[in-house]
């Protein structure tokens, strides 16, 4: 199955998770250098309650990937014009694979130059992106509505299995 890279983004401002578009990126072990989620390891937090908070663990959230089709469905559910990937802190926006969030763990995405990503499952909706959406539209209720209505549409998290370049317009192969 092929999907098209519509945008590559980076969250490189320390005060926010909001990302911004960049032309291309050299993905490394650890993700996108300079991105807030970059690193082969990370500190355990509320998402890993089985480990002491702050202990070092494998970073399975190096990249956040969303799809054009799922963002449109979220917008429709919320009754708004659009949801931008930047508001969700996404790193990669794809099109052509409308059920991205339903990809099972372990699925690989192969890049045109030989690099590869591994899916680590759904990126659970949370209030941070909900607040960005609410602030943009001036509707406070969207904060919590996003958390409920974006379930199974929020995209996936992934890690870099093999480094490689990624840019808008690239085709990635999703190995089912």
Structure in a nutshell:
The chain is of the alpha+beta class. It has helices at residues 68-78, 127-137, 142-149, and strands spanning 2-10, 20-22, 24-27, 41-43, 56-58, 63-67, 92-95, 108-110, 116-122, 156-162, 164-167, 171-175. The chain has a single domain (2-175), classed as PK beta-barrel domain-like (M1 Pyruvate Kinase, Domain 3).
How would you explain this protein's 3D organization?
The protein is α+β, with helices and mostly antiparallel strands and 176 residues long. The protein is 17% helix and 32% strand. The protein contains 3 helices and 12 strands. The strands form 3 sheets. A 7-stranded mixed β-barrel has the order 1-7-6-10-9-8-12. The protein has a two-stranded antiparallel sheet with strand order 3-11. Strands 4-5 form a two-stranded antiparallel sheet. It is globular. It comes from Paenibacillus sp. SYP-B3998.
